[in-house]
Amino acid sequence: MILRTLVISPHEEPRALARADMPRGVEFTFPERPGGLKSAAPWVLLSFPSYRSLWLVLRHTSIAGWVAHGFSRGGHESKPCSCPPPLKRWATQSTMIHRINCGKALVMCCVVIALSQPVELRAGQDNAAKRATLHYTVSIESPESQRVAVTVSLTGIEPGRNTLRWVMPQRFAFVRLPEPLIEGSIRATADGKPLEVQRAEPYLWDVTLAGQTAVTLSYIVPLTHRTLDAVKNRDAYEYPYLAKDHGLLVSPTLFVFPEDAEPGDIRVRFELPTSWRVVAPWRSLGKHEFDPGGRKALLNDLIAVGAWHIHEIRVGSFEGTIAIAPGQDALEQAAVEPMRRIITHELELFDRLPMERYLFIFGRPDISGLAGSPKTGSMTLNVEPRLAARASRYLPHLIGHEFFHTWLTGVEMPDELRWFNEGFTDYYAYLVAARVEFITWQDFADTLADKMLSCALNPMREHLSLSKAGGDVFFTNRHAHDLVYDGGMLVGAWLDRAVRAQKKGKTLDDLMRAFNNDPRWHKDGLSPTAKDLVAVARRFTDETTAARLEHYANQPFDFDPVAAFAETDVKIRHVAKPPKMALRANLDGTRVIDLDRHWITYRVGVRADDRLIEINGQPVSDAQQVRAAWRKPVDNRIRVTLLRDEKEVKIDEPLPLIQTFTVPADPWRRHK
Fold first, then answer.
1. 115 three-class SS
2. Please, which residues have CB within 8 angstroms of residue 583's CB and are 6 or more apart in sequence?
3. Cβ distance 453 to 444 under 8 Å?
4. Spatial separation of the C-alpha atoms in residues 229 and 216, rounded to whole Å
5. Is the dihedral of CA 81, 78, 27, 550 positive or negative?
6. Long-range contacts of the stretch 197-206 (C-beta < 8 A, 24+)
């Protein structure tokens, strides 16, 4: 049997109570504080998850002992040692419980009496933790050093504690390093005397306190993450860097945090080269000093330091700051207005304000293409220089996708819903771009057709479910990654049409608000599940559609766009025919820079960075010869000799048939 407790300090006002470690659907509301409880000792909530039972236990100075209240779907049971009527009425007033069965009151009373002293001690410890202060100093002496010095001071540690564990975040970026970059070791002192520090795991440290109630940690972080083989050319944009006149700091690479403490006062101060400024998504406390507002933001945000180009966006009470690294003038000219329009539309779509301020950072573009990653109060964005002049074409989708993620800021989305979190988000990124007229509705429909083709050619199709594709394989297998995005987007588009087909004036917008704005996710930090999503879908569609949604999520992905959309009055055309002999690749001489992954060039085995030597029996030495030779297959076969990683590779493949999908734009245009 598992016992979980929640202790509420006697100094706190009664409030709504619900926690992730209790059975789903539990909520206590205490709208009024009865006079008889002004001097109450801690209230305690005890949950037995394995038996789906919950008890509210109260103690009062005028009561001899504890009062245990158990709740069920239809009523309330009390086993007090002594329980005045006002207390009992207050304990049950405005209490909403469902799907809970009571435990045995007598056993509970015995447990509570046995735990009475430790519970009171725990309440005192929680109060002590809230009086604790945690102050960080981040120092950059010289950008050329590529190093940041960090000092952490924690005061108000509860007396008698022997060790304190410190942790660094590990899951903040797509590429996860086996250990954080720290130069040397972490040093700890108290009253000027060194304390023992042991590294328990790559991201965990134990500090021996030796009776101290205050401790200072110091360490050096080299900002060389972008030079690591695992990071460069793939995920560099999520990692920090220092240039001669500016830098990007990534908080999870800088800060350690006391694992089981929640200090009431957290501050971060920056010591920087002369004339450098700080732009952070946190509340300013003065020059270069900030309050991140809590552990979550402290350990998952971005800070721009130095000579960034700054633009402000205001939408109602929302304040957005755009920081663009120096040397990106074309991007700066193209980015601001699309961002303003996309953000305005999506905030209206959300029907809630996920945050009051947000920081958008276009850092040094160290990877090809476009990429973005949202954090708690900020996001990092990458736009390759050759695309910057056309940023107004590409940026609406990038911003639309990444800012859409902020709708569920602070909610931990499980792997089983990654297809929803990424696929539906991508659907809205293109949908919003069409709604605000950055792309045409035909462009939008053609994008859906491309995703249908991608899914049809995906070798994981009919072998892997969307939920399974969002697990660990998502990070290691490109086909699973594509199935999550492309398959999830198609299911989103289909569900939008299915909701509209009910002809009740509702759209996927309404379903998304019902699901994403569920107060449980935001107030109590519960993780939604696929079953929760299907349950909400049942409110907007019929049982057949909800069952099909559940099937697409949990069974090997067999989505047939022609049949699925036909049931929503959208006619999709699908044909297979011989290809036109276009290369559909960008070249630098005979080296392939990138290529269309849906086209025959990719399907026969050509990849980015390959250097082409001979095509269809003809030697090639420049881009013009490559394209001319490619258009002349012999005996309906494509034969290519190339260099890959300095090794010769030969390709000899029959010409494949090309599948095409045609999607009409009118069904979406009519309902924009």
1. helix
2. 595, 601, 626, 627, 630
3. no
4. 33
5. positive
6. 200/165, 202/178, 203/167, 203/168, 203/169, 203/170, 203/179, 204/165, 204/166, 204/167, 204/168, 204/259, 205/165, 205/166, 205/167, 205/256, 206/163, 206/164, 206/165, 206/166
Residue 375 burial (C-beta neighbours within 10 Å; 0-12, 13-18, 19+): buried
592, 597, 601, 607: CA torsion to nearest 10: 40
Residue 197, Cβ neighbours under 10 Å: how many?
A: 16
Largest Cα–Cα distance in the chain? 97
Residue 559: closest CA among 569, 548, 570, 544:
548
Token digits of residue 97: 């419980």
Dihedral angle of Cα 593, 663, 489, 579, to the nearest 10 degrees = -30
Q: What are phi and psi of 525, to 5 degrees?
A: 70, 20
Q: Where are the alpha helices (DSSP H) in 356-471?
A: 385-388, 391-404, 418, 425-435, 441-457, 466-469
The per-residue pLDDT for range 378-423, each reduced to its tens digit, is 999 999 888 877 777 788 899 999 999 999 887 889 999 999 999 9
DSSP state, 370? E
Do residues 568 and 562 make contact, with C-beta atoms less than 8 angstroms apart?
A: no
275-312 b/e (C-beta count within 10 Å ≥ 16 → b): ebebbbbbeeeeebbbbbeebebbbbbbbbbbbbbeee
Mean pLDDT of the chain: 82
CA separation for the pair 215, 199 (Å, rounded): 17
d(CA 547, CA 542): 9
Q: If you ran DSSP here, which 8-state letter would residue 424 be given?
A: I
- pLDDT for 104 beyond 70: no
CA distances (Å), 44 to each of 9, 115, 191, in order?
9, 11, 38
The per-residue pLDDT for 393 is 76
- Residue 85 exposed, middle or buried by CB count within 10 Å (0-12, 13-18, 19+): exposed
Distance CA 584, CA 598 (A): 10
Q: What pTM, to 2 d.p., does this model score?
A: 0.69
What is the full DSSP assignment across 598-626? TSHHHHTT--TT-EEEEETTEE--SHHHH
Cβ atoms of residues 506 and 560 within 8 Å? no
Q: Is 175 exposed, middle or buried (0-12, 13-18, 19+ CB in 10 A)?
A: middle
Q: What DSSP designation does 514 have?
A: H
Q: What is the C-alpha to C-alpha distance for residues 196 and 208, in angstroms, rounded to an integer?
A: 5
Instruction: Tell me the per-residue pLDDT of 180-212, one tens digit each, with 9 for 90 and over.
Output: 999 999 999 999 899 999 999 999 999 999 889
Q: Terminus-to-terminus CA distance in the chain, angstroms?
A: 53
Reported in sequence order, the residue ranges of 272-424 that DSSP labels E, i.e. its strands, are: 278-279, 283-286, 289-291, 302-306, 309-315, 318-324, 357-362, 370-374, 378-383
Q: Give the number of other CB atoms < 10 A from CB of residue 215.
A: 22
Neighbouring residues of 208: CB distance < 8 A, sequence distance ≥ 6: 162, 163, 195, 196, 197, 198
For range 523-539, the mean pLDDT: 90
Residues 168, 100: Cα–Cα separation, whole Å? 37
Q: What is the DSSP letter of 288?
A: T
Q: Shortest CA distance to 26 belongs to which of 42, 7, 46, 11?
A: 46
User: Could you report the per-residue pLDDT of 493-509, keeping only the tens digit for each?
Assistant: 999 999 999 988 999 99
Distance CA 634, CA 655 (A): 10
